[in-house]
Amino acid sequence: MGLCDAIVKAARSRARGRRVSEVKVRVGGHPVDPEVVDQGFRLAAAGTELEGAGLDLVMEPLSVHCRGCGGSTPVESARTLAACPRCGGVDVEACGRDDVVLESITVDPEAEAGAEAAAGARGGAR
């Protein structure tokens, strides 16, 4: 749940109290099950302005470059990180991003319009 809690925390910080309808997250290198992350996200978002928001996960798996045969292969298991699946060589290097990035949030348009109207009313009362 740590990953999901972090996604919700970052999205709530950007949302600043506005209702969110969609969250887009890029996951690089981490072998995660999208269904498990989606379920954890829904649990972490319950009772917040993200409750009911969709989660768009963009997966970017690591790849392994073999210095022996020169081949590059996407990492599909821990075994791939240890030996080249093409030639069996062990002189391999992991390549790619190994991070999680909150790329964007989509604020519910109705909530956005309500927030703008409220801000305008406060500004006009000065």
TrEMBL record:
Highest rank taxon of the organism: Bacteria
InterPro entries membership: HypA/HybF
Alphabetized UniProt keyword annotations: Metal-binding, Nickel, Zinc
Pfam family, one: HypA
Protein name as annotated: Hydrogenase maturation nickel metallochaperone HypA
Organism placement in taxonomy: Bacteria, Bacillati, Actinomycetota, Actinomycetes, Streptosporangiales
